[in-house]
Write a structure and sequence with these properties.
This protein is an alpha+beta fold. 36% of the residues lie in helices and 24% in strands. The longest helix is centred in the first third of the chain and has 23 residues. 33% of the residues are buried. It comes from Hominibacterium faecale.
Length: 687
């Protein structure tokens, strides 16, 4: 079965235009053609490689030559397809046959918006001429097509792969044409030689560069390493072998240049989230399906384009989004690899944590059920026994069996040893309520040698083992005091969720900020609540995490779906690593409060629910800046103190937006999620 679709161009015209309403268009590719998909009305889902993308009215998508893609929709739509004969246009647009273009951009900034506005305007000029024709039609059409393709190549050719998953139009590559050329030469070389052993050293020697230099060019420009690029290219090429032939997976692996089948399967799963066999089973029937579309008269194109829609009218149009929505298939089935939610994270508290009376509530009981809770204990000069006695009594009262000790830069090791010996002595005579507990020792010093000396001492001093077990932890994951309002605001919540769910090491958070010397409500601390007990956005982010089920059914960088018996929990959060790199240096409250004035785009997801049947109660909890303590405080003008009534009102108004709905699931149901920048949403489905 051949999936290549031969485009039939009108006599003497190197472009083809079709307006249609599409229900299903099976998997195919174009060998020597470039295709533009423009959504005129409605929506359509585009499957291209491992990505499923929802395109809405106003969206333009570029399908490059040889890219496998398909489209389907259950809703009314009008889709404009423009195809260009590359065999003709390569004589006018330099290196067009080696280009890879994309405009499903989601970078922020006016520059990208302007590019989309101009692109849409040029497409409209071309289409109006194509439909109306007139004198000198063929020559004018060719001229407009060359202008459009040149513009696309100049502005949409600079792709980068973000987080090994998302393609973005990285415009800053445009400023270094020499390296862009090198990248495309490497990319072209891979696709022409994928079936044999290819090394970075081979390419470095050919271009007279060091391997180190060439490796950094690839990583900086494309976002992944040479090996990852090679594996991605081979996996992408293997799609055709899986769908067009009956070759065994092992044969496909060798044909595509993998030295062993297991390497191929691992690389395929990394990009597609399933094995090659699963991919073949799932998509083969779709590849063989019939085309279901109604071709509309060309006049229908003009009916969708108003002559009054000038460039100025396009500016700020929400339909011209800077990114694409992500479509997430959800069957409710358990993941093939039985994976559990990471539950080794820790919240630490001090003996003063309940003084405000604002955080001893049922919400904290939920946190406590899914977090390890420990008390922070430390030495106080001249009051060691007294402080330790109070700490042990507090642990008894709160039924805590974990504590944290901060190893600081005290150069006198005897002080630390005295602490542990005193603790062990007191444990011998302490009431039986406190049994053996876990003592986390956090290295908060710049003396790794001294820290190791202390650990060795505790390991060798076996009598101490009778009272507490020692576990060292790294302060890189110890959120003591970041001195940044990013962690006071909602901006830090996606990164907190990401660390809680996917961090290699446990994430350790203080429950309460230390009291601000200036009496400000917030002062850049990393606690889950302010010093007066008012909850920050981070508190609710941890609450969302705690409400997840134990079994993971699907996950990615910015969402996780879990299951508990017949209930499902879907958590989405706006994790954008590049954005965090930009804002994490913000320390002033004015800088952080100004982030949302930039008009950064939000995120959209569509969960495609299949194979779930029955009636479900759906609870949605949405966290955005409008229910964030920091932005309430900012809107009040950053007052230093609060009146009693203001504190009570803030306590009542700071809570995620909650909605309830009863839904009946049958067939396929689409669930729409719209997140503001840095926001998160938890959806609970209970049968």
């Amino acid at each position: 079965m051949m999936l290549e679709e031969k485009v039939q161009y009108p006599q003497g015209i190197p472009i083809n235009v079709i307006m249609s309403s599409i229900e299903e268009y099976p998997i195919h590719y174009h060998g020597n053609d470039l295709e533009l998909i423009v959504v005129m009305e409605g929506t359509i889902k585009l499957i291209i490689g491992y990505r499923t993308i929802l395109l809405k009215k106003g969206d333009v998508f570029i399908v490059n030559e040889d890219e496998l893609h398909s489209m389907y929709s259950g809703a009314a739509n009008k889709i404009l397809t423009i195809q260009f004969d590359l065999n003709f246009f390569v004589q006018y647009v330099e290196s067009l046959e080696f280009s890879y273009m994309m405009c499903e951009t989601y970078l922020d900034g006016k520059k990208i918006e302007d590019l989309n506005i101009t692109l849409t305007s040029k497409i409209q000029q071309l289409i109006q001429l194509y439909v109306k024709k007139g004198a000198g039609f063929s020559k004018k059409l060719t001229s407009l097509s060359i202008d459009l393709l040149t513009y696309m190549k100049s502005n949409f050719e600079y792709f980068s792969i973000y987080e090994n998953r998302y393609f973005i139009n990285k415009l800053d590559l445009k400023d270094n044409p020499a390296n862009v050329t090198r990248i495309w030469e490497i990319y072209k070389f891979i696709y022409e030689n994928y079936d044999r052993k290819i090394t970075l050293q081979e390419q470095a020697e050919e271009k007279h560069f060091s391997m180190y230099y060439l490796s950094h060019i690839i990583k900086d420009f494309i976002g992944i390493s040479f090996k990852e690029l090679l594996n991605f290219s081979r996996v992408e090429i293997s799609e055709k072998y899986l769908l067009e032939t009956d070759m065994r997976v092992s044969e496909v692996a060798l044909t595509c240049g993998f030295s062993a089948t297991r390497y191929y399967v691992k690389a395929f799963e990394n990009w597609y989230g399933q094995t090659p066999e699963e991919y073949r089973t799932q998509r083969l029937s779709h590849a063989k399906a019939e085309i279901k579309r109604d071709v509309l008269p060309l006049q229908a194109i003009l009916d969708c384009i108003s002559e009054e829609r000038t460039e100025e009218r396009y500016r700020g149009n929400p339909l011209l989004r800077d990114f694409y929505s992500k479509v997430i298939p959800f069957s409710g089935q358990s993941a093939r690899m039985k994976k559990k939610v990471n539950r080794n994270n820790l919240i630490f508290i001090t003996r003063e944590w309940g003084t405000s009376g604002l955080i001893r509530d049922s919400l904290f009981d939920i946190l406590r059920s899914k977090f390890e809770i420990g008390v922070l204990i430390s030495t106080v000069s001249g009051k060691l026994q007294q402080e330790l006695s109070k700490a042990l009594e507090f642990m008894d009262e709160e039924h805590l069996d974990k504590a944290i000790y901060l190893f600081n830069n005290d150069k006198n090791m005897q002080n630390h040893i005295n602490f542990f010996e005193t603790l062990a002595t007191m444990m011998q005579f302490h009431s039986p309520g406190t049994k053996k507990f876990t003592l986390f020792i956090a290295d908060n010093s710049s003396s790794p040698g001294n820290f190791q000396y202390l650990l060795d001492y505790l390991k060798q001093n076996t009598p101490l083992d009778d009272f507490f077990s020692v576990e060292p932890i790294c302060c890189e994951n110890l959120m003591l005091d970041h001195d940044s309002y990013v962690f006071d605001s909602i901006c830090g919540t996606p990164y907190l969720l990401h660390d809680l769910l996917r961090g290699d090491k446990r994430t350790i958070c203080p429950l309460v900020d230390g009291e601000s010397p200036s009496a400000d409500i917030l002062a850049g601390g990393s606690g889950l609540t302010a010093w007066n007990g008012l909850k920050k956005a981070a508190y609710f982010a941890c609450l969302f995490y705690a409400m997840l089920g134990e079994e993971v059914t699907a996950e990615n960088q910015d969402y996780i779906i879990t299951r508990k018996e017949d209930s499902y929990q879907l958590l989405f959060y706006d994790y954008y690593q590049e954005g965090y790199k930009r804002i994490k240096s913000f320390t002033s409250r004015e800088e952080v409060s100004g982030i949302f004035e930039e008009g950064v785009p939000s995120s959209e997801y569509i969960v495609e629910i299949n194979h779930l049947r029955g009636t479900y109660k759906m609870t949605r909890l949405k966290l955005g800046d409008e229910c964030c303590l920091f932005y309430k405080w900012a809107s009040m003008g950053f007052p230093q103190g609060l009146t009693k009534s203001e504190t009570i009102l803030l306590e009542k108004s700071i809570f995620p937006e909650v909605t309830y709905e009863v839904i009946t699931l049958e067939g396929t149901t689409d669930l729409f999620i719209h997140l503001p920048r840095f926001g998160s949403e938890l959806i609970l489905l209970e049968k």
